[in-house]
Amino acid sequence: MSNPTPNNVSTSSLAPSSAVSVNPPHVIIAGAGLAGLFLGNLLEKAGISYAIYERTAQIKPLGSIMCLSPNILPAFEQLGLYEELMSFSKVSRVCSFYTDKLELVGRTESTTGKMIGYERILLARPPLYDMLFNKIPAHKINLSKKLVSLEQDHKGVKVQFEDGSAAEGD
């Protein structure tokens, strides 16, 4: 005896239609900033095809101190990058707020470590950038590719670059 389906739905109607692509997607990432590199690392881990297009001719990890909230840290752990991230980060359990004259307005203490197992961390942007950049295969990062237009339809997306070249994705 077969198991009944919910609401008497035929399982044959749940099969993929011929309009659904069975080919794996190819993702185009515009920009090799922190977000683009983080997405590249996620796609690399998932085995999804992608290419990163960066407008500059040379990568320069810029920036100063930044804070990462505990909610993003499990993603770094899933990528296998958590321990390396923590090697150049400092846990921040206290946050103080000041006026423009440096008068203390208030202070909060974090309890997230006890509740969810991860703390808010402070770190310099350049080591984070270097870590994410170095995990991406070099052939997937395309430099001097300033995006000038994008066309999207039911077939996918096509991007045009300032140098006259183009790329297609899904």
From TrEMBL:
InterPro entries: FAD-bd (IPR002938), FAD/NAD-bd_sf (IPR036188), FAD_mOase_fung (IPR050562)
Pfam families reported for this sequence: FAD_binding_3
Keyword Cytoplasm assigned: no
Keywords: FAD, Flavoprotein, Oxidoreductase
UniProt-recorded Gene Ontology molecular function terms: FAD binding; monooxygenase activity
Oxidoreductase keyword on record: yes
Annotated ranges, domain FAD-binding: 27-165
Family: Belongs to the paxM FAD-dependent monooxygenase family.
Protein name, UniProt field: FAD-binding domain-containing protein
Biological source species: Linnemannia schmuckeri
